[in-house]
Structure formats: structure tokens, C-alpha cells
């Protein structure tokens, strides 16, 4: 497993080479939390805008590693405006824990943040929103296959099904009728457009993103029990297919 400092160095090197600028959002215990930005090139109209984040939970390395692959191999399309946070929780990543060093689950802290990490990422999202598509990369230690949460202003789930079909070529989906306490169908937990985000105080990042503008959001969950190469490949497939569909 990559140490957060090695991970950051690697991301920095490849992102600079591939035309991204880097912004340090804050530092926690000597680890920088940073965002990468790349402006869309050659688009006649204002470019579509995409937000991708990973590593909110420190024991879910597939997300950060998928972002490293997307940046290193320059797989994200150049016509988009991109805002990427490769590793939201470096102290958790260093210790292999879901929570940050202070023992807090950052993905319950995006409404009125009490932690430096979520506070910094919230400020970034507020200054950069609205997005046309946003993606939060996670893993699940209990699932048997890939699944995802979707919130979207249009209730048609055909886009989500197309993303899942691209993911399934890289490894199995979780077909359980209930996942993490929510009804699921074909590896999809589909939130309606009017999903009551205000009813909850402990917002995940997804709710903050959706509160800023009604756009397509997916929270991607790979199965931690599968080999890391498969989890990374599933994340990469989902990100690229979601972009193809929503931001052609
Ligand atoms: Zn997670």
C-alpha cells in the first residue's frame, strides 16, 4: 500500500505532466489535502464540469488508486473542466482506518463540518459548484460486488444501468435486494430527484454536492474483498462511462 506522502508525490508528478494545476486546501498532521484542476480545451461552448473525489474513508484505497491511474495514464477527457480531490482523508489512509486521525467519519460531516478535511472540501465544492456530474469513490467491506448510489434530477435510471454494465465487464456486481439498509435493484440504490437531504444532519459529501445544484451524482462502492486490481478497474470503468454518458 502506498503511504499518503508517496501517493501525493506520485499524483503531483503525473498531474503536472498532464496539464492539471494543484491547489492545497489544508494540511492535517503534516499531510496536505489538495485538489487538481484542469480547464476544458477546445470546447466552443462553456465546457461541462465534473467533480471527482476519493479517500474520504481511509481504509478504502481503491478510490485514490483509481484516481492515480486516471491521472497517470491521462484517461480523463480534455474537453471537460475537471475538479479532482484524490485523497480527502490522508491520516485515515496512513493508518488504514475509515475515520480520520481524530476518530471522525468525514462522510457524515459535510453539512456543518467539524473537521478540517471536510471543512476544506466543502469550501472547495462551494467555490467550484455547480457541476454537471459528480462522483464519490468508495469501497464497502461487506458487499460481494460493486454497487452504487445515484441521485439525479431525471428519474430515468438507464444511464446508471449503462454505467453498471461497463463496470460488470471488470468484475461482479452486488445483486442483493437490500444493501447497507437501502432497497437496491441490480446493484443500484436510486435516490429520487426530490430525495429529502434536508431531513438529515449528518450529510455525506453526495448531499452537499446535490444541495448546490441538481445534477447527476454517483457514489461508487467497490467490494473490499475483491483483488485491488479489480476494484481499481471497476472504479475507472464507472468514472469513464459516467463521463461519456453525462458529459459527451
Ligand atoms: Zn466509504
UniProtKB/TrEMBL annotation:
Domain Peptidase M14: 1-248
Family membership: Belongs to the peptidase M14 family.
Protein name: M14 family metallocarboxypeptidase
Disordered, as annotated region: 172-191
Highest taxon above the source species: Bacteria
Pfam families in UniProt: AstE_AspA_cat
PANTHER family from the UniProt entry: BLL3975 PROTEIN
UniProt keywords, alphabetically: Hydrolase, Metal-binding, Zinc
InterPro entries according to UniProt: AstE_AspA_cat, N-alpha-Ac-DABA_deacetylase, Peptidase_M14
Biological process terms in GO annotation: proteolysis
GO molecular function: hydrolase activity, acting on ester bonds; metallocarboxypeptidase activity; zinc ion binding
Cofactor requirement: Zn(2+)
Organism: Pelagicoccus enzymogenes
